[in-house]
Amino acid sequence: MKTWLVLAIAAAASAFPFAACAADYAPIDCAKASSPAELAICRTYSLGQAEARMATLFGITTSLVAMGQRGDIGDAQKRWLKTRDACGGDVSCLAEAYRRRIAELGAVMDAIASRGPF
């Protein structure tokens, strides 16, 4: 098991109230999905799972980093959303976009785990 995953689980348990304050990204509400990308994510189980994983990692990472880095991660998330939405309903494009974003957020978690958030 990756060190950052263990750290993420521990952080989720202790930082949950802060994650909502730090994160400006909410997972897709499939009842309100309207764009081709959102509809494809809601119709495709693996993309829905990737969405949940990415949203969780985003919330945890933004709750564990300093304010300046939190802003950088948030800005990167906004850019990523544009990239994701440019995929439209192309499932393979969306899967690749999620793979890359999850890897980026995982790298942030690895960095935190290597030095500790304390």
UniProtKB/TrEMBL annotation:
Residues 30-105 form the Lysozyme inhibitor LprI-like N-terminal domain. InterPro entries: LprI-like_N, Lysozyme_Inhibitor_LprI. Residues 1-22 form the signal peptide. Keywords: Signal. This is Lysozyme inhibitor LprI-like N-terminal domain-containing protein. It comes from Labrys monachus. The lineage of its organism: Bacteria, Pseudomonadati, Pseudomonadota, Alphaproteobacteria, Hyphomicrobiales.
